[in-house]
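Course assignment 3, question 2. Fill in each field.
Student: A.L.
Task: Predict the tertiary structure for the chain below.
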Amino acid sequence: MNARRLRPLPALLAVLLTACATTPVPNKPAAPQLEAPKPEPVRNLAHPVSVPVAATDSANVWDQLRGSFAMADCDSDPGITTWARRYTQNPERFESQLAAAAPRVAYVQQIAARHNVPGEFALLPWVESQYRPVSGGKNMPAGMWQIMPATASALGIRIDRGFDGRMDVPAATDAIMALLSRYHDDLDDWRLVDYAFNTGEFGLRKMIDKHGLPPAEPVIPRMPVKPVTREHLVKLLAIACVIRDPGRFNVSLPTLPSEERLVTVSINNSMPLAHAASHAGMSQDELKDLNAGFRNGVIDSNASPYLLLPRNRVQQFQNALLAEGNNSPQTIAGTAALPPLNATLGAARDDTSDGPRQQTHTVKNGESLWTIARRYSVAIKQLQRWNNLQTANVKPGQVLKVAGPG
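Answer field:
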């Protein structure tokens, strides 16, 4: 990722995420999960995060993913089974696409588990892009998450002529999962989290303020959202439905051998993409597909200090680097160290501390706890805990903690 600072963009981030949700062709891989690391609370984006990617018995991958599901099953709405049948109308094609996407889905599920996000959301890229590293044009969404440029800026994701962090699978996924977790802190309903991802949280919150929270039934909330937003949730639950019960749709879920799982490998120096591919024993196209953020045929270690590789290519890559004296020995040990997402939010801070830094904000006229939470990309509930607030009322001149001391 980059060393850029995340600027406060209150309503903008929520509105911008409307464009994250495209409606791609109904087909492409779905998700295996490895042994999920222990979920952690939403992190402060100003500090680095390590994302474990551990290998487990491939026979358990799909069971573990199902076990992390938290939303409705296949029969909760007729539209879910309709879309599940569309996804699988050509079983051979579906299985091929699923096998191709399985390594990415497994990796995404690890990061979802870290943020305590249900397994269904590891399947979001299926709905968005079918896990393809879609290259966006000017002012267009990009990457498997289909992130708009301004949204990327709000999340601290670097985009320049040489690098597009929206297509960096580890960092972009971590940023999205942190965002989904914050949405749930505010909305307390995973269905609404998906609506917010598609249509924008700010607009959804105004809708909730006017019409109230939806009941548990029907499963697809009857809110005055756009049809594409309602269908987005249906599609997400439909691909989860196929993973729940593949036999019902006459498809089989592929195994994911441990050697095909994706891991990140640290790099100390920049190098041509062709050079890195040769070291890993891969074609340039294969390496580029996994590391699509690098734009100009150069692996820039200043833009991203790691490569995403299949596990069975790691040793060859590291041995080649050692042989040419270009990289000190690096061990993966199942851990991917992401660069900071850099959220220095224009607040007072203690720069002498080596640990997480406390930040404060002085309430201005016209501000609410809601707008402040949006500005600093934290949950309203978290602000209330940090500041011992019993209600959401704040007064001009009041000083609030907007990031915890640890």
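Instructor remarks: The longest strand covers residues 262-266. The CA atoms of residues 196 and 204 lie 6 Å apart.
Grade: pending
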